[in-house]
Amino acid sequence: MLVQHRRNFFWLVAALLLLVRCAQVVTPNGGAKDTRPPVAIKYNPDSAAVNANTQRIVIAFNEYITLSNINEQLIISPPLATPPEVNIRRKEIVIDFRDTLRPNTTYTLSFGNSIRDITEGNVLDNFRYVFSTGPVVDSLRIRGRVTDAFTLAGEKDVLVILYNTAADSAPLKQRPWYFTKTRADGSFELTNLRAGNYKVIALTDKNSDYLWQSAAGERIAFRDSLLTLNANCDTLPLRLFQQTDPRQRVRSAQQVAAGKVMVYFAYPAKKPELRFTKTLAPNISLFTERNRTGDTLTLWFSNNSTDTLELVASDGGVTFDTTELRIYDPNDKRFRPRGGQPDARKLLVYGTVNNNQKADLYSPLAVITSIPVREFNPAGIILTRGRDTVKINPQFDSLSRRRIQVLPNLREDSAYKLVVLPNTITDWFGQRNKDTLTLNFRPKTPDDCGNLKVTTKNFKPGNYILQLLNEKGAVVSESKIAGDQSITFNYLYPGQYSLRLITDSNQNGRYDSGNYFEHRQPEIVKIYGGSVKIRAGWDLDVDWKMKKQ
Fold it and tell me: 192 lies in which domain range?
């Protein structure tokens, strides 16, 4: 009996300990963060309902929701004259129409990115609800892809819009009839479409107003003509571009450092010139420097000045624009030099080659300065090859007084030394170089480089620009071609390259974007479909065949 009491006591104590342990308060961890958007679980009328003659729609979700910018985000196709009233009722969206719906019409309500849960703000992306007031739901579709016109890369989150009008003003003034957004690869799909004729537009809609704002940098793509939709369309390419103003103009003029002003044009000019409407102070002399493409002029002022100048820009004597420029003394607190450069008046002298490194084979040798040169002493520039002194005739470059040409081409298998003695160079501010510049170098040999021969085949006769690009996408070399021919790019350094072809329709030697109002598409760009690997000492042949059309 005593043993039985002891057993009962033991089990009683064990039960009490277990109860105490279970009753301990533990702080809940809350679980994983909710990252899922709301889910629609019920519709009234049902989604894709027919003969839905109602003035109210109720959509229920699986959690509490909120709406963001619903007035801007909600797009109803076809559009209504009076926007509906939209309200949140706990876990439901209630839409009350204030217009009489059209008979026998399929309506699509696109909520954009306006719906999100109330706790974590997870967005239900591009939610759509479809119903019909007639006996059928429109079922035609359009599929396609939006790419950048120049890079040919697919563009994500671009609006693809249909208008039931031929007016060119539609993307500026009208909300879309139908719309969708592109996926990550630029592909898109428009569904539940009615047969008809549509203007097709694509936009990078930065401010989500469903209108094209070219001045805000929004790009556009358009189909050349109206799309007649009477069957599914599964191949609709659209090329996105930045609309450009065809007029030549001064894009900007700014003082970037003391004594240095940069003036940028919209397009390259053949003979760009600038003049001032009032005379500069007697103690100020001016040097104007043009870049090689003719779209930028640099103004160097010999002395500090604080003034407002009016610039008149011309090309070949024909004036195309005027602009005002505020010049600040570097001691003026309002002056903010670009890049943190406090003063441009520091003369730096260097060469087109680096010390103790191999130089580009058969490339020109030149002395470069950070400030335009007023004058230099040719005797102070000395070039030797081995133990021999090379006879040279240093001269200013035809376009830049910051470049003194020393030697047209470098020979292979030769050790060179370039010396620039002190006080050889006098810059535009009257400063002279104080130190000796010494550069020891040796040019690369043909065995350090590779050659590339590109043969174009099945090209239609026309005007093309064939460009060779390095791994960073920079143009290494380019050549104009007229159809099927062979082009050789010599002395290329080992690495990965690519080929780009521009159809130069207007023969101006550069790529031109499109113009929506002129119904002009951007010039066609094609990318060679494989990588081009250059090896040292190797010759590579590439055949670029165009598909016959």
Answer: 140-240
